[in-house]
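User: Um, any thoughts?
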Amino acid sequence: MKKHLISQLALSAGLAFIAFAAQADDVQGSAKAGAGKVWLCTGCHSIPDYRADYPLVYRVPMIGGQNAGYIAVALSEYKKGERKHPTMRAIAGSLSDQDMADIGEYYAAQTSSSPINPLK
């Protein structure tokens, strides 16, 4: 059972790496451009310990400092319906691949002392 779980984790990590690499090859993001595109994100993701209550109670993660490729891939998965949160799916549905890459770079550049968005 443990070997099976380890194999699944390794496979998942490998697929995630491939997805990040594929995203990076297609579009180059810009943190500066992303700064003008995150206005809707901050409504939930900048509130410490925020919990969304539709359709279920869901802890909204702080995404500052997260890997840019991960954010872009996650947004793409929401857009395609592979991830199921309805609000995120609606927001991601309005984003282009360039928007997703820019937003990913913006949040990847954030640290706890970032003056751009101190409430990541």
About this structure: The mean pLDDT is 81. The chain is about 55% helix and 5% strand.
